[in-house]
Design brief:
Helix content is about 35%, strand content about 25%. It is an alpha/beta fold. It starts with a strand and ends with a helix.
């Protein structure tokens, strides 16, 4: 039995890696994509994960498939397309570890997911399904994503949704907001940033925004605040998780690392999303926050995902 299937984007992140002798920027080729990062983060924790999506049948696509397999992620539902090329993204890093992205994704394979690419039998094998808004940009990929989410939810599986707003991927701002909001109705667990919560809920009152999401069917809302930590909201309680102070090198994948460890921890603990114990949830989210802190100390998202033992050791050292 799989713990989770992560559906969505798998791509190459070109991460800054110094200068050449001629003074030109050098880039390191790293595996990336929020949905794939989620699967790798959970696998590093020790969860049994699969990835469902599409890459090109090209050098990069083959490399990505091998990388996921090497990390223990089941790639049986990964489609390799001879029609579309693997998506590329260039990461721009700032001094504080924050980053921006330039995507080469128009007609990129991950965005061209279709209903026929969804392996519903694979979803039957999992306890949970994860998706993000990046597969909602194109109509076919959106249809495929929502079909998978509806199928999973109808069968009593958890569905998690990472809003993951990337405004530069959308040509129509109104469609962007509408599609991202539509994704909310399929989710039991939602992770979004402060900016994303304001954008989708039209309020800077996080508690009010969370209540709006509960009305749509959510059971747990996680608000990531970067270096300021995170907040959590259930129907019965809410609170904050303090951040861990580290020297940030690259923030790419930190949110995916946090969410992956959080969902993995909740699945491991067999949490009942309708009747959660706050103390248990806080312990899980604190662990997830520690993992995310470790993630930002290295370059590249997937290569920097810490395993469960390393995170536990780090957390113990910070608790003394």
């Amino acid at each position: 039995m799989l713990d989770l299937i992560s559906l969505g984007e798998l791509l190459i992140d070109f991460t800054p890696h110094g200068k050449s002798e001629q003074g030109n920027d050098l880039f390191e080729c790293n595996p990336g994509g929020g949905a794939a990062n989620m699967a790798v983060a959970m696998a590093a924790y020790g969860a049994r994960c699969a990835f469902m999506g599409k890459v090109g049948d090209d050098f990069f696509g083959n490399r990505l498939k091998q990388y996921l397999s090497d990390k223990g992620v089941d790639t049986g539902a990964l489609v390799r397309s001879g029609e579309y090329m693997t998506t590329l993204a260039f990461v721009h890093l700032f001094a504080d570890g924050e980053r921006d992205f330039t995507f080469y994704r128009k007609n990129g394979a991950d965005a061209m997911l279709k209903l026929a690419d969804i392996d519903f039998a694979k979803i039957d094998q999992a306890r949970a399904l994860h998706f993000s808004s990046l597969t909602l940009v194109n109509d076919d990929a959106k249809q495929a994503t929502f079909a998978a989410a509806a199928y999973a939810r109808k069968r009593g599986k958890w569905v998690s949704y990472d809003v993951n707003w990337r405004a530069n991927l959308w040509e129509d701002a109104d469609l962007c907001r509408a599609n991202m909001k539509e994704g909310l109705v399929y989710a039991d667990i939602i992770k979004l940033s402060e900016e994303e919560l304001v954008y989708l809920c039209d309020t800077a009152d996080y508690a009010k925004g969370a209540r709006m999401l509960f009305d749509l069917g959510a059971k747990l809302v996680l608000v990531s605040k970067g270096a300021a930590g995170s907040e959590y909201y259930s129907r019965d309680f809410s609170g904050q998780i303090a951040p861990f102070t580290v020297t940030a090198v690259d923030g790419t994948g930190a949110g995916d690392c946090f969410f992956g460890n959080a969902v993995a921890g909740m699945l491991e603990a067999n949490i009942d999303l309708d009747h959660m114990a706050e103390e248990t949830l806080r312990d899980i989210l604190t662990f997830a926050s520690a993992a995310a802190a470790l993630c930002v100390t290295g370059k590249g998202a997937m290569p920097s995902m810490p395993d469960k033992a390393r995170t536990a050791s780090f957390l113990k050292s910070r608790s003394k």
